[in-house]
Specification:
Length: 265
């Protein structure tokens, strides 16, 4: 997701007790459900900016060699055709875990901030409620960022298209907030895990380390779309659940696992 400058928010993160990486105990819950079957995109629907829901322009999202791939070989130029692959169910209390990597070169015309950039969108609006030319769903983005010899960045950050969050009791209206993670290098496979408990707490976990914690995800009333989304959310500003989607932002990437664990409410 687009960003200007990441805010470290070191003191706020420290007050939440994540200034040093922590291990997750999320595996003590129920069984993992495989959301990606390694064969096709059953259960998933693409929505690409400028195209109707379900139209997979350029075969952007595809399955090859047992991997869910995001590719741009049929694009002349990216032209801000941001895409999201939506899972069929809305969810509230769960853990989602993906294993992913960035590969190859960024698509011609991709924004500089989108280099080695993808994301998992949580608590999102439904794809049916998105406008045809809408770039990103109103949602909470768990940002997946890669680093290499030219670029070094934290991973597992949070961005908030059409939304806000609370950290350490303070409403955060900045668009993107950096995590405490180490960089994720090259074409290495990375495990990103997110523990989501409705409106109570969301935890980002990268390669087993908790790197960010926040709560009270909510719609941003500064946005033009707020009245529509507020009504669709049952006249409630707070987000207690919603859609899940994987991003297409101009850099090729692979997902070899997308799995879910349902948590008790």
């Amino acid at each position: 997701m687009r960003k200007t400058t990441f805010l470290l928010l070191t003191s706020l993160i420290a007050c939440l007790g994540i200034s040093c990486p922590q291990k997750t105990n999320s595996d003590s819950q129920s069984e993992w459900i495989q959301l990606f079957n390694g064969k096709n995109l059953d259960g998933w629907t693409p929505k690409i900016r400028g195209y109707a829901l379900g139209e997979n322009f350029g075969n952007t999202f595809r399955v090859e060699d047992g991997l869910l791939k995001v590719r741009y070989d049929q694009y002349d130029t990216f032209d801000k055709r941001y895409g999201h692959l939506f899972y069929k169910d809305s969810l509230s209390h769960y853990i989602i875990r993906v294993e992913y990597r960035f590969v190859g070169d960024q698509c011609n015309g991709g924004e500089g901030w989108a280099y080695r950039n993808s994301g998992i969108m949580l608590h999102g609006q439904t794809p049916q409620s998105m406008d045809k030319d809408q770039d990103f769903p109103a949602s909470i983005e768990v940002q997946l960022l890669g680093s290499d010899s030219t670029t070094e960045r934290s991973n597992g950050n949070v961005c908030t298209p059409g939304t806000n969050i609370v950290i350490g009791g303070k409403l955060i209206t900045d668009h993107c907030i950096g995590s405490s993670s180490k960089p994720s290098w090259g074409d290495d496979w990375v495990t990103a895990e997110v523990e989501v408990r409705g409106n109570e707490v969301i935890k980002h976990i990268v390669n087993g380390d908790t790197v960010m914690v926040y709560n009270q995800p909510q719609l941003d009333d500064r946005e033009a779309s707020y009245p529509k989304l507020f009504a669709l959310n049952g006249n409630d500003k707070m987000l207690h659940g919603g859609s899940i989607s994987l991003q297409s932002e101009s850099h090729p990437c692979d997902f070899r696992k997308v799995e879910l664990k349902i948590l008790e409410e």
